[in-house]
Design goal:
298 residues; alpha/beta; D-Maltodextrin-Binding Protein, domain 2; 2 domains; 6-stranded mixed β-sheet; 5-stranded mixed β-sheet; 10 helices; 14 strands; 32% helix
Length: 298
């Protein structure tokens, strides 16, 4: 597996380089080592050279899952903290934990299928997987070919800083200095604000932007929540906190088109996880902050 992501990966829109190199390997095969987070979990070995199986019958996936006693879930293995390989070659991450919880809710075993980037939706369409839980965003094009659950995971651009920086909205940035990775999605969002009242310091990458905040060079930065999770984990004494969300783009479970029963079942499980505090627990575990409002943008 190509380990391009090491320190920081801005967000799903900036993962093109990962997908490029990963696709070179996928042209041969996607291999995974057998391992599990529970005794009821296993990992599948997928060879992309295999003949593509026929599509599942729309609306029958839930019945098929219950009859088989196993749900097959496509998950990331190259995008921490959503999903990555541990030193023991087992999958770990927010999406992996959510997949386990959904399998428990269905009362079936879990089969994890590593799926990188642009292979996620095809695995669902070609019946290689029953669900996709892989930091999947929702857009109009995808909605034409697959169905989605309600949002289950945070994925957003936000403003972060030290507790003494009193910022709760874009209006509070007036007179402030904020750091950002040049050319990033967050840079574009800041560019929409008045340059006369806000001082924006641009850095070459996320690592330098994070270093500027930690060293006190800037009191605030604009970055993705995945990057922020890494910063807060590596610098616990700094008490870095989220000030506000600039652009929200939560993650959804991908489901085969027409599987309304399965959508309803997955939604019910996610709702129960929100009400019980389980999703908040997982957010604290993997993103180092409470679960934010997952209401999608209008």
């Amino acid at each position: 597996m190509v380990q391009v992501f090491k320190e920081f990966l801005p967000n799903r829109w900036h993962r093109a380089i990962v997908l490029f190199f990963a696709s070179l390997l996928l042209s041969v095969s996607i291999a995974s080592c057998s391992g599990s987070s529970t005794s009821a979990t296993k990992m599948a070995i997928i060879n992309t050279a295999e003949v593509v199986p026929p599509k599942g019958i729309p609306g029958q996936t839930l019945n098929k899952i219950m009859a088989a006693g196993t749900v097959r879930v496509a998950v990331p293995d190259d995008f921490p903290p959503f999903g990555s390989m541990s030193p023991k070659m087992t999958l770990r991450g927010y999406d992996i934990d959510v997949a386990n919880e959904i399998a428990k809710g269905l009362k079936v075993n879990l089969e994890l299928i590593p799926a990188i980037g642009n292979y996620r939706v095809p695995f669902l369409q070609t019946n290689r997987a029953d669900l996709v839980i892989s930091s999947l965003g929702k857009n109009k094009d995808r909605a034409k070919i697959i169905d989605f659950s309600q949002p289950y995971a945070p994925f957003f651009s936000g403003v972060y800083g030290l507790p003494e920086s009193a910022v709760k909205s874009a209006e509070d940035l007036k007179g402030k200095t904020i750091g950002v990775a040049q050319g990033s999605l967050e840079d574009l969002e800041l560019s929409k604000l008045s340059s006369e009242t806000i001082t924006v310091k641009r850095f070459a990458n996320n690592s330098l932007t994070a270093a500027a905040l930690v060293s006190g060079q800037v009191p605030l930065i604009a970055t993705g929540n995945v990057v922020a999770a890494k910063i807060t984990k590596d610098n616990p004494a700094q008490n870095i906190e989220k000030k506000y969300i600039m652009k929200n783009s939560p993650c959804y479970v991908g489901i085969r088109k027409g599987d309304a029963q399965l959508v309803a079942k997955v939604d019910a499980i996610i709702t129960a996880m929100k009400q019980s505090g389980k999703l908040n627990e997982l957010s604290l575990k993997w993103f180092n902050e409470p679960l934010p409002d997952l209401t999608p943008p209008a």
